[in-house]
Amino acid sequence: MQYGVGVDPVVIIGAIIYFVIIILVGIYSKKLAVSAADYYVAGRSVGAFTNGAALTSTYLSPASFLGMPCFIFILGYPFWWAMVAIIAGMPLAALMTAGPLRKYAPVSFTDYYCDRYDMPKAGRIVAGIPTLVAGILYVILSLVGTAIFMVALLHVPYKLSVLLAAIIVLLYTVLGGMYATTWNAAFQCILMVLAAFILAIAMIAKLGGWSTYWHTILATSPKIFNVPSDPAGVQHPFMAMWLGVIGFYFTWHYGFAAMPYTVVRFFTAMDVKTARRSILWTTILGGILYASLCVIGSGARTIMEKFHPLAAKAAPIAAAKGKPLAIIILVLIKKTFGIGKVTDYAIIASAESVGSSVLMAIIVAGGLSIAMSTVAGWIMVLNSLISRDWMGKLFGSTFAEEKPVLSARIWTVIILVVCGLIALNPPALVLDLSGWAFVVILASIGPSMVLGIWWKRATKAATIWTALLMTPATLITWLYAKMHFGKPHFFFLSKKIITPHQFYWIFIGLILFILISLMTKPPSEEAIQKYCVELHEEE
Amino acid sequence: MMKVPKRLIWAFILMYGYAILFWIVEAANPGITKKFVAGAPLPVWYACIIGMLVWNVIIAWIQSS
Description:
The complex is a heterodimer.
Chain A: H1 9-29, H2 36-41, H3 48-59, H4 62-75, H5 80-104, H6 109-116, H7 122-154, H8 158-206, H9 210-220, H10 242-253, H11 255-258, H12 260-268, H13 272-307, H14 311-321, H15 325-337, H16 346-354, H17 357-394, H18 398-402, H19 404-424, H20 428-432, H21 434-444, H22 446-454, H23 460-485, E1 490-491, E2 494-498, H24 505-519, H25 525-533
Antiparallel strand pairs in A: 1-2
Helix pairs in contact in A: 1-8, 1-17, 3-8, 3-12, 3-13, 3-17, 4-13, 4-17, 5-10, 5-12, 5-13, 6-7, 7-8, 7-17, 7-19, 7-21, 7-23, 8-13, 8-17, 8-19, 9-13, 12-17, 13-15, 13-16, 14-15, 17-19, 21-23, 21-24, 23-24
Chain B: H1 6-28, H2 32-38, H3 46-64
Helix pairs in contact in B: 1-3
């Protein structure tokens, strides 16, 4: 029993059923993962709905489920735009990258860079290094996210939670490769969308219905819906200028089109049309999830302050410190479990405030789903990068070339062990860096990914130089803002300007890529014909 | 010049046109978000929900054309 909220047997049974199903899927898919193509891209046999659902749960990390509802009640309505932007980026990916890349049909993320820019070795490094760094950060973050759900809702000790999460993901990724990862991710998507949708409905019902819900929220947080130009001011200084709103919009907006863990899922679709149609499903499922999270985030503070078991204990502390009661409740929960950040507990506390054991079981399954699917998605990118691309293609390892599935399985174990060890005692900075991880990929290798398909003048030199310059530039400015001003959302040269996660580098990277391309030797006619002409032709 | 599909160009125009339109309306009428809340059952959430639905329609159109 922790702060008056115990673990109901229904919640435990729900979690056990969830774990059994995903492990069984792994065991079942083992017999299908025979060749390298089976293991890495599920034999290119996945249908539109399954692929779309898998894309949704893989792309949306535990930060979506744990952090974003809290960001809404802290930052207010303007943060809705960040969530809309993530969904709005999906349709663009259908035509910009999903269709053409499925037509080209590579096996791994770096194959495209090697072939398009005629750099068989350097392409593996240029595209591989930012991918490796971002991937490791995301795996650690997602393992911690999985553990937070187990700790807070099942009361399993933190280190055991990390271990359990790593072992279960390991079981199904090692056994079934991309088959197991895809089917489990599709199943996990349904669970997480249902969890968010049902919680949103339960919160609306708890506060007295749709109309009362919004009026009560406005009464509790009078500035929650204020926009930067409101004379009454905004809820949080980060939303005090439109640049902050627009910055949060663009931080994650293009991710779906260019992040490695989504791009590889375009390769698993049956054909070009299936790849595009899978994005229709992603948009619908992701849309329902984020629409629900907007409702949850808006009402999280209100429902916690009215109904959370810790509200009475937190009230005098909140009054003494002059802080919102909901924040103090989250601080107390965080102190109880001692892991993660205060913002990680908003959705858990909201569900606890509703007070239904069935709902808690659904939230456990949904939370574990969103976190574990991201771990598995990134693991598949990383094992293919290290085993196939680096060990096999770059360093010429005969073991990796002759026994690709076994090699990938060994690397899966190594990656999960390393990330699991870091996740046991994660430095706070590592968890924060996930915001940077998005920007570094989009600024350093995003332009060469998209323009390589759509612009004949996109060159090898521009690909190399953009990656070389943008990777340190994004990291240094992000770290400087974080260390110097306390948050990475301030422009690194001035605290008066809000630039979330130094998002402007995404556009600078794009401009830099174009300029260098115009100044350097054009690509070969063969590359232009293959990537900029043939990939655009309709099947 | 590269031949960019018209449906991709339209997707860009509709996407950013939608966002910019809302930002302009909100910037010019900062109270609009709260007015909609007060006038329930049509809260400000319309922006988010309709935005997502519009995108579903657009993507359906992109896929089918």
